[in-house]
From TrEMBL:
Organism for this UniProt entry: Shewanella frigidimarina (strain NCIMB 400)
Family matches, as InterPro entries: HPT_dom_sf
Highest taxon of source: Bacteria
Protein name: HPt domain-containing protein
GO annotation (BP), single: phosphorelay signal transduction system
Length: 216
C-alpha cells in the first residue's frame, strides 16, 4: 500500500516516540477522525492530571483514580509507555514510602508533561492527514427517503449510546441536514465532532419531526 507524505510523517514521528499509531487507529475501526478527536480530548485530560498532580503533592490516594483511567486511555490511543507507567505505579502506589512517593510524584509530573507535548505535536500531523482524506471525499446530498431515515435512526442510536462512529454516520447526511435545518447544523456539527453526544441527541430529536413531514 502506497503511503502519502503526511502518513509517512505520522509514522516516523510515532516510531521516534514509541507511539503505536496504527494499532490505535485500528482500535477505532480505522476511523482517523474519531482518533483525532480522542487525542484532542486526551490532551485536555492530561492538562487536568498535571493540575491535579501539582495540587496534591503528598496524598497518594488522590492518584489512584487518575492512574487507573490513564492506563486505559493511554493504551487505547497508542501511548503505550505512558500506559505501562500508569499500570505499574497503580499497583505499587499504596506501598510507597514517603521518599518513594516523593520520587514518584516528581517523575509523574514530568511524564504527564512529556506525553502532553507529544500529543500536542501529533495533532497537526493528524489534522493534515484528515484534511487530505476529506478533500478526496464528496458526500452526496441524499434525498429524504427510507435510506436517509435509516441513516438518521442509526445516528440517533449511536449518539444515545455515545458511540464515536456517529462522526462517520453524521457525515453521510450532513449536507441534507444543512438544507433541512440550517439553523441547527453548526451546533449539531460541533456537538458531534466534540463528542458532546447528549447535546447532539437533543438537536436530532428536535429536527426529527421536520424530517418526517418532508418525507410525507
Amino acid at each position: 500500500m502506497n503511503m502519502s507524505n503526511t502518513e509517512r510523517h505520522i509514522t516516523l514521528f510515532c516510531a521516534e516516540h514509541q507511539l503505536e499509531y496504527r494499532q490505535a487507529v485500528n482500535r477505532f475501526s480505522g476511523n482517523k477522525s474519531t482518533y483525532f478527536k480522542s487525542v484532542q480530548l486526551f490532551i485536555n485530560d492530561l492538562t487536568l492530571y498535571i493540575q491535579q498532580t501539582m495540587a496534591s503533592p503528598s496524598i497518594p490516594a488522590d492518584f489512584a483514580p487518575m492512574l487507573h483511567t490513564l492506563k486505559s486511555s493511554a493504551a487505547t490511543l497508542g501511548f503505550t509507555e505512558l500506559a505501562c507507567y500508569a499500570r505499574n505505579h497503580e499497583i505499587k502506589l499504596a506501598h510507597y514510602s514517603p521518599t518513594e512517593f516523593s520520587q514518584f510524584h516528581e517523575i509523574l509530573l514530568a511524564t504527564l508533561s512529556t506525553n502532553k507535548e507529544l500529543a500536542i505535536m501529533l495533532i497537526p500531523l493528524l489534522e493534515k492527514d484528515l484534511q487530505a482524506s476529506n478533500s478526496q471525499k464528496d458526500m452526496p446530498i441524499l434525498a429524504v427517503n427510507n435510506e436517509f431515515i435509516m441513516i438518521y435512526d442509526t445516528l440517533m442510536e449511536e449518539v444515545s449510546h455515545y458511540n464515536m462512529n456517529a462522526i462517520n454516520t453524521f457525515a453521510q447526511i450532513a449536507k441534507t441536514l444543512n438544507l433541512i435545518a440550517p439553523q441547527h447544523i453548526e451546533l449539531l456539527t460541533q456537538s458531534i465532532n466534540q463528542l458532546r453526544f447528549q447535546q447532539a441527541e437533543n438537536i436530532l430529536t428536535e429536527i426529527y419531526p421536520r424530517i418526517l413531514n418532508i418525507r410525507k
